[in-house]
Amino acid sequence: VKCVTSFLSLFICLFAQAKQPNIVVILTDDQGWGDLSLSGNKNLSTPNIDSLARDGASFDRFYVCPVCSPTRAEFLTGRYHVRGGVYSTSAGGERLNLDEQTIGDTFKAADYATGAFGKWHNGMQYPYHPNGRGFDEFYGFCSGHWGDYFSPPLEHNGRIVRG
């Protein structure tokens, strides 16, 4: 009986449809590795981010650029920013080449629902817009910074909404 029960348990485990895990990635702008209390910073307290890192995954071997658009391009593609056409933060230099596959494209191909929230800064108009780069949902702003921090212009899937 034990053998049959064990076999049935193994059979059910092997053939049960695996549910895809939820994946949430947080990218903070211009934050260094040493800016977290988890990394030993005694001057800043970051308990919520520390908890996410302890209970999830944390990257401690990486390269990023010191400015926003190139860092985002590298995160989106997993490639050096210049290879994706991003060489600046303005005047078109922030736009990721259209032939680059993004993390959004990759997750969509694996039947995930995708979303990007917050600052994009890799192109404002379609097809550079997040909704054209593999993200089903976007809520945030596409430019480099807000002109008004008290009433920022935010958008939801290309439509301006109140912030």
TrEMBL record:
<keyword id="KW-0378">Hydrolase</keyword>
<dbReference type="GO" id="GO:0004065">
    <property type="term" value="F:arylsulfatase activity"/>
</dbReference>
<feature type="domain" description="Sulfatase N-terminal">
    <location>
        <begin position="21"/>
        <end position="141"/>
    </location>
</feature>
<dbReference type="InterPro" id="IPR017850">
    <property type="entry name" value="Alkaline_phosphatase_core_sf"/>
</dbReference>
<dbReference type="InterPro" id="IPR050738">
    <property type="entry name" value="Sulfatase"/>
</dbReference>
<comment type="similarity">
    <text>Belongs to the sulfatase family.</text>
</comment>
<dbReference type="Pfam" id="PF00884">
    <property type="entry name" value="Sulfatase"/>
</dbReference>
<keyword id="KW-0106">Calcium</keyword>
<protein>
    <recommendedName>
        <fullName>Sulfatase N-terminal domain-containing protein</fullName>
    </recommendedName>
</protein>
<dbReference type="InterPro" id="IPR000917">
    <property type="entry name" value="Sulfatase_N"/>
</dbReference>
<dbReference type="GO" id="GO:0046872">
    <property type="term" value="F:metal ion binding"/>
</dbReference>
<keyword id="KW-0479">Metal-binding</keyword>
<dbReference type="InterPro" id="IPR024607">
    <property type="entry name" value="Sulfatase_CS"/>
</dbReference>
